[in-house]
Specification:
single chain; about 425 residues; mainly alpha; about 85% helix; about 0% strand
Length: about 425
């Protein structure tokens, strides 16, 4: 508590507070806007079409992770360290954007091969390519840059614009189940538009110049982001992959029940992410200055996050049926049990993001971080392939909980070995 008081009495106070509230406002909009469209979409599209979209969106999510390549961590850290050096910032910016462009083209090539060779994907090729616009939009949007320079207010404004674009047009255009094709189109257009606007803004407002990076610079950024990319890819194996695995063994309707429940839980879990994105750039510098102060700061955050997420999980479990009725309607009664099973995820996930993304990355345990997340992803996939054929959506939910529990246990053991005691 003493350290937190010191921080908020220091010159960093204004920046941290502004960043926190900007990201909180962004996260509330990310939470509320999808919850506004979700009840409408599930009622208009029904479980079958909603599940179809969820299946192919989970497929496209893998390519979003490829193009992101961990830059939201590695490039954020580079920009944060060199934020006063305009030439260095320009070099980092151009290097990252070139790598992202290469990854987008590679991803598009792989998607095309899959569409041309696998019938399950070829029959819904239009949904897949329209959904791929999400990958392009996210690649264009330099979230990592805004985080690095700690201009979260700008990040919030840009992101909310994309969400509002999608939200308004959903109510105008989507009127019947056959309109499902327009959902990925609207989502992609909003992100691409905001991505282009944000790039122009970065160039003009931050005086970023277009420079040609050397091959060594390209290799450096690829190397820096590698372990974070692998861990993020592995994370998707116990977050977004479950809808995909469920779709391989069951049908779109079952995927719809599971995906609708999971969206509610993930939206609740994401409420704590402003804490991480606000604190991470600052903590990255604090670790280099004082290990003891950094640990004390993390302990305080962990205490409050644990309490908050525990209360939230209890409330959601108690009111799961009410939440399902209000948000999803009567056609999604099968989602209630999934919501109840997954209510522990905000609690486990809240603790895990502090132990892994905040603590291990700040202390530069990137390799060990990657190993833990990879193992968790593999455990989830293994459990899902065992449980889904027998228990369907319930098996998928149980697999996620097993993976999150593994992360908590293994991370705690690792940190104790490094004499980092947070509990």
């Amino acid at each position: 508590m003493k350290l937190i008081k010191e921080i908020f009495n220091s010159p960093t106070k204004k920046r941290l507070v502004e960043n926190f509230f900007s990201l909180s406002f962004l996260q509330i909009s990310n939470y509320l806007l999808p919850l506004i469209t979700l009840p409408y979409l599930v009622r208009v599209l029904g479980p079958e079409k909603f599940g179809l979209l969820a299946f192919y969106q989970s497929f496209i999510q893998f390519f979003y992770i490829i193009t992101d390549y961990g830059f939201n961590f590695s490039a954020t850290r580079d920009i944060s360290i060199h934020r006063e050096d305009k030439a260095k910032i320009s070099l980092i910016f151009c290097t990252v954007m070139i790598v992202k462009t290469i990854l987008v083209l590679f991803s598009l090539f792989v998607v095309t091969i899959i569409v041309l060779t696998i019938s399950k994907f070829s029959k819904e090729w239009l949904v897949i390519y329209l959904s791929f616009g999400f990958v392009i939009g996210q690649a264009l949007f330099p979230r990592w840059f805004f985080q690095g320079v700690e201009k979260m207010k700008l990040l919030s404004i840009m992101s909310i614009l994309a969400k509002l674009f999608f939200t308004v047009l959903v109510f105008i255009i989507i009127k019947k189940p056959s309109d499902y094709i327009y959902v990925p189109l609207l989502n992609s257009l909003g992100l691409i538009l905001v991505g282009i606007i944000s790039l122009i803004f970065v160039k003009k407002s931050f005086k970023v110049k277009i420079v040609k990076p050397s091959l060594a610079e390209l290799k450096h950024q690829i190397k820096e982001g590698w372990h974070l990319f692998i861990s993020t890819l592995a994370t998707s194996l116990y977050t977004t992959a479950n809808s995909f695995i469920l779709g391989l063994f069951t049908n779109n309707t079952v995927v719809g029940y599971y995906s609708a429940a999971e969206k509610i839980i993930r939206a609740i879990q994401d409420l704590i992410s402003p804490i991480f994105y606000t604190v991470y750039p600052y903590l990255s510098k604090l670790v280099n200055e004082s290990r003891e102060k950094a640990l004390d700061f993390i302990k305080q955050i962990l205490k409050y996050v644990s309490f908050f997420t525990f209360i939230i999980s209890i409330i959601v479990f108690i009111f799961a049926e009410f939440i399902s009725r209000i948000v999803l309607g009567n056609n999604f009664n099968n989602s209630i049990i999934i919501i109840k099973i997954l209510t522990i995820i905000p609690f486990l996930g809240g603790i895990n993001i502090i132990l892994t993304s905040l603590t291990m990355l700040s202390f530069n345990y990137k390799k060990e971080f990657s190993k833990i997340i990879i193992n968790a992803g593999l455990i989830n996939v293994f459990c899902a392939f065992l449980l889904v054929p027998v228990y369907f959506a319930i098996g998928s939910a149980i697999a996620v909980i097993i993976a999150e529990s593994y992360i908590l246990i293994s991370t705690t053991i690792f940190l104790r070995k490094k004499n980092i005691f947070l509990f």
